[in-house]
Structure formats: C-alpha cells, structure tokens
C-alpha cells in the first residue's frame, strides 16, 4: 500500500510488521490445523473398540469374538505377515494349516483370510485376532483317504496342533524378524498399507507392546511346556496354562503330580441334557455356564475383557446341536446282539443309541467314577488341585454375577454321554487308545504307540485310522507318533468289556459303531 494510505507513521510501521510476520502466522496456523487433524485421526484410530457381528449363529461360533483379542491377541496385520516372516515354521505355506487350523472358502470360492476358531476385534483402534470356542471344538472327517474333507462344528478339533502353535507364537518374541524395520514392510507386502500416523504408532507403540506381552508369556509358559511331553494334535492342557498366565503361578512351583494335564479336546454336541451332569473330563463342575466361562479363560479372555453375550449366544446354540449320524453300517444282526450286551454292561454309565438317535438315560451317566475303580491315567485328574480351585472361586469374576461357585475337586473321571462317538476318537480322556476295538482289549494288548492326526474314519475298528509307529524312530512323514509310555499318556484302565469272548466283543463293537 502507498504511504499516503496511512494516517500516521505509527500505522505505517504496524502494517509493515504485519506483512513481515504474515508468512509465519500462516505456517503456525497450518501447523496447528495439522496437529489437530493428526490428533483427531489418532483418537479415531486408536480408541475404536468393536467386533464384527455375524447374522448366522454358526458363523458367530466359527468366527465371532468372545473377547480374547484384547489381552491375548496379536494384530491382524502381524498374523497375516508371520507366514512370510517365518516360512519354515509354516512349511512354506501362506496360511496356518501347518498347525492344523481349518479354512473355509468365501462366497466367491476364495479361501477366507482367517481360519475357523480365530476371531477379529478392533482394540484401541488396532485390528486384533485371537481364539474363540471353535478353535478347540471344530474338526474334520473323511470317509476314505481320497474322500472329501467334511468340517463338523462342535466335534473335537482333531487336526489342531495347539501346543506347536503356541510354542511358535511365543518363540517370535525375541526374534529380530519382529523388529519394525522387518515386520512393517512384510505386512505391507501382504497387502496392508500403513498411513503416516499408523506407521509411527505401530513402530513406537503397537509392536513394542506386542513384543513385551509375548516375552512375558514366553517366560511363564515355556517353563511349563518344558516339563511336559509334547501334546500332539487334538489335545490341550486345560488348567495349567492359566495357572501360570492368569494367576501368575511360577511353573517351577507346580508339583510333579499336577504339572502334566494334557487331554483330548472334547465334543460339545447337545449340551442341554448335560446340565447338572459332572462336566469336564474329571467332572469338576455341574454348571454349563461356569464350564463355558472357564473354557473361555483358556482361550484367552480375562474377567475384564470377556464378551458374555457372545459366549451365551454360542452356548444357547449348542444346547440342541446334535452330531451328524454315524456313516458306519455294521451288520444288523451283530448290532442287535451288541445292543443287548451294551444295555446289560454299559448303558447305565453312558446312555444308549436307538433308532431315534442317542438317548441320555442311565442312572450313572454324568456321574464321577473313582480313579481306583477306573484305573485310567490320573495326570489330568491331579492337574486340577484344591488350591487352584480355591483361587478360581475367590479370584476369577469375584464380586460379579459370574463368580464361580460350582467347581469341586473330584476323585475320578466322569461317565460321559457317547453321542457322536464315531467322531470322538481316539478314546479315553487322554486319547491313549486309538480305536473302539482297542478299548475292548486288555491294556497290555492296546497299542503302545500310534499315529495321531488322521481324519480318515476307521469304519471297521471305530475312530480314525491310527497305524502303529515307533516313538524312537525318525519323525513320521505325516501325523504325530503318540507314545503311551510318556507321563500323562497312559493306556491302562477302563477294563469294561475287555474280558468278553471275541464274538461278544465283535457284536458290541458293531453296536458302538452306530453311535
């Protein structure tokens, strides 16, 4: 402006100063806007907490969150990057099938990005994944080696190598491949781009937090797993891991008797008739709701993060979910003769099968048989201790409507219903006996070692095809060599039917094949 525009010299000088500082003011305003934008973006990104909702309950069972991701999960982008970072652990596959996880195809015929039993939840703005009920309770069968693989919700997860998976996840804690400079590019190569704010947050907050959590869990769990034989597929130690993780009990303080507790994943078909029965292998609870909540803790929820409504939705569905009918077609005459034997010797403890399906009737069904009478391996029984029970009752969900009240210490194992028996091999609580035929043999004649991991139905012997193996030989090309001489894997006990004549055993087996 010309000097004549200004009335006084003072006004002219002030205008000059304003012109001089105008660029600075504009820069400051722009910086303030940028800071506000970044702050709002960060708030939106890193405070959002929600989970996908599935309309069909079966989809909710397979993929819905129960709340495990918040404290136990890993970021979805890390989950997707791990096969690229650790190709040997994944057997050069780009998914988690090397650990026995099961995948379905989407409506377009493409493999889904997450396997059954792995759910997704946004936690503080980060997409996290971890486990739900289906990871332990969904399995497969095939009628022949080259037959179609059928996925069955609520059957035991006969494929899942859970210990191997957990050991792998823990092993990544101190690996240099988990450093931001390596992991972030691999995550982007897997198709997940990071914005500037996200990348900064991941480098300085998300990944360090993940690593710290994995290191802490590794320190607690690895010392426990080092004391145990390998679990093998289809098995889990139910209570010891959450002694050392949730309750922070040092693994070194566990007694020799309680430190080994691996057992087979159970089936969870038709739970309604089981209300009031002794649940879990050792029958330590008669409440379905408490059993379900306890199992959710094992999947990674905490009393603070558990999604009670999500668990109840699954539980309500399982009340009436029946197993698929057995495809076995044994001789009708043998079945009739076997049913007579079964009704005389077995039905009071295990119910029975008729033309209408499985019947939950029997005066001792769902009750606990003393270990002295059963004679089966007692490791799973001993892993649940009175001291642990007391801490369950006083610490977990204490002061809430969900507080545990029904847990008890028993002296044996429960007489379980046998619905869906054809899908529940191998047998006994610890899976020490591969087939129903072997279960009717005296313990000395039962296999000392056999291959676990096949999902091919054994229509002759009951259960799954389980050839013998040598635990001292080289690792098998497929399957897991289960050694019954290892602690907790004993094949003794349950002598019922073992003294029958061969013809009677054959008839009884024919009837059992129809369950």
Automatic annotation (TrEMBL):
InterPro entries, per the entry: Cyt_c-like_dom, Cyt_c-like_dom_sf, Cytochrome_c_Peroxidase/MauG
Keywords noted in UniProt: Heme, Iron, Membrane, Metal-binding, Transmembrane, Transmembrane helix
Pfam families xref list: RoxA-like_Cyt-c (PF21419)
Domain Cytochrome c per the UniProt entry, residue ranges: 333-515
Regions crossing the membrane: 26-46
Record-level Gene Ontology MF annotations: cytochrome-c peroxidase activity; electron transfer activity; heme binding; metal ion binding
Listed name of the protein: Cytochrome c domain-containing protein
Annotated source species: Labrys okinawensis
